[in-house]
Amino acid sequence: MTFRNILLIAILFLLPGLSIAQTYDIILKGGHVIDPKNKIDAVMDLAIKDKKIALVAKTIDEKEGKRVVNVKGMYVTPGIIDAHVHVYYGNNMDQGLMDGPSSVQADAFSFRSGVTTMVDVGSSGYRTFPKFKETSIDGSQTRILALINIAGEGMRGGPFEQTTKDMIPLRAVEVAKKYPEIVVGFKLAHYSGHEWGPTDSVVAAGKMANLPVMIDFGGAEPPLPLEELFMKHLRPGDIFTHQYAYFPNTRDAVIDENGKVKPFVFEAVKRGIKFDVGHGGGSFRWKVAVPAIQQGFLPDAISTDLHTGSMNGGMKDMANTMSKFLALGLSLQEVINRSTWQPAQMINRPALGNLSVGTEADVAVFSISKGDYGFIDIGTDKLKGTRKMVAELTIRAGRIVWDLNGLAAIEFKK
Predict the structure, then answer these.
(1) 29-38, pLDDT tens digit by residue?
(2) Which residues, 6+ apart, have CB-to-CB distance to 181 below 8 Å?
């Protein structure tokens, strides 16, 4: 035996207090892990190394972690996916959600609600997406994915969203193929004409690119029939947003005048049409959501429709929107599923929305605050609840980006 080997044995056995290099960058200790994809719903430890999930196990020795965070009594989930936002922020005062003041900066709103991925739904069109990528996506810590608007300018407002000659499927597909790491589908929004041409144009783009489309059913008068949309125009996997909205004069609703979910809605679910909450500032009513949920019409994606017209109203943020579904009677596990794994599948991103070993370490930690709370829809109606989700810690790509109460901080000694 060489002198070097003898020295190593002495270090390992004679000096047990000597620090050995830790295996993991971060260990989350003692939290209740909810990971719907992997069917985990138990108190577990979670370890992160080199920006990836390294281990989820009953017990991980905390000596193996460079940083150990005690999350006992809290819930550890995949990073939340907000599948409906508008984050093409700009200073052009007349351009609405497209490079204008009605959109918001992603990082200012994401992490404080446990959100690590946002899907911008149609703020940019095929003509304006490159600038959106340059000014908003490339510099964002939040992962931003996008649906390309079939209207060339995107959600610029007014005539820009009504000009059918500017709805060119091939142009939208070209952008999707050029940026496949970002573009996850196409969007039609706010079209008010009483015709199916724009719907068929966006679906044509979806067919060419093999990507889903999202429909915001606009404001046709008289309203176009939802049943025809679901059964004759959309494909399985396509997305209908604002599912709990109520616009009696301009849009067919999912419930009838007696609060009953229309039979064709459940047929659409069976057919594979996906449904997105898209709360927003005008698209979520308790008078629709309560009876619909009671009758089993649930969302595939809980989402905010975040923009300046919604963030200070009934919607507030993603954690508040998720809490509303607790008040509606869904279990915490169901809420997490519809905010992580189900939207990940809806946008064909199976690497997101789960805590599988080897995936990028996007993680949220929530506490559940108990009390007497009131949750507001987009009007003045309030639904009472007793639980509110609070984002305590958010980790994006293995880095702590939000720490509400200093869980991962070093305590200052007075």
Answers:
(1) 999 999 999 9
(2) none
Partner residues linked to 132 by β-bridges: none
Side chain identity, residue 298: L
Q: Could you tell me the two tokens for 231? A: 């059964």
pLDDT for the residue numbered 223: 87
| Residue 115 tokens, joined | 């959100």
Summarize pLDDT for 211-226 with one digit per residue, the tens. 999 999 978 878 899 9
Q: Answer whether 66's CB lies under 8 Å from 26's CB.
A: yes
Domain boundaries, the chain: 79-346
306 vs 319: CA distance, rounded Å: 12
Q: Enumerate long-range contacts of 229-232, CB under 8 Å, 24 or more apart.
A: 229/199, 230/264, 230/265, 230/267, 230/268, 230/271, 230/273, 231/264, 231/267, 231/268, 231/271
What residues have CB less than 8 Å from 33, skipping those under 6 apart? 40, 41, 42, 43, 44, 46, 56, 75, 76, 77, 355
Contact residues for 63 (Cβ-Cβ < 8 A; gap 6+): 20, 22
CA within 13 Å, CB half, 378: 22
Q: Tell how strand 65-70 and strand 24-35 pair up.
A: parallel
Q: Which two structure tokens, joined as six digits, stand for 113?
A: 């609600």
- In 3D space, the residue among 131, 116, 109 whose CA is nearest the CA of residue 77 turns out to be 116
**Sequential DSSP letters for 385-414:** EEEEEEEEEEEETTEEEEETT-TTSPPPP-
195-198-199-202 Cα dihedral, nearest 10 degrees = 170
For residue 222, say if its preceding peptide bond is cis, omega within 30 degrees of 0. yes
Strands 115-125 and 143-149: parallel
Which residue's structure tokens are 């599923």?
A: 337
- Contact (CB, 8 A) for 350 and 66: no
Choice among 228-237, 250-259, 298-307 with the minimum mean pLDDT: 250-259
CB-based contact 361:398 (threshold 8 Å): yes
CA distance to 86, 140, 153, 311, 381, per residue, from 100 (Å): 10, 17, 12, 16, 30
Residue 229 has what DSSP assignment? Answer: I
Q: What are phi and psi of 200, to 5 degrees?
A: -70, -30
Q: Which fold has domain 79-346?
A: TIM Barrel (3.20.20)
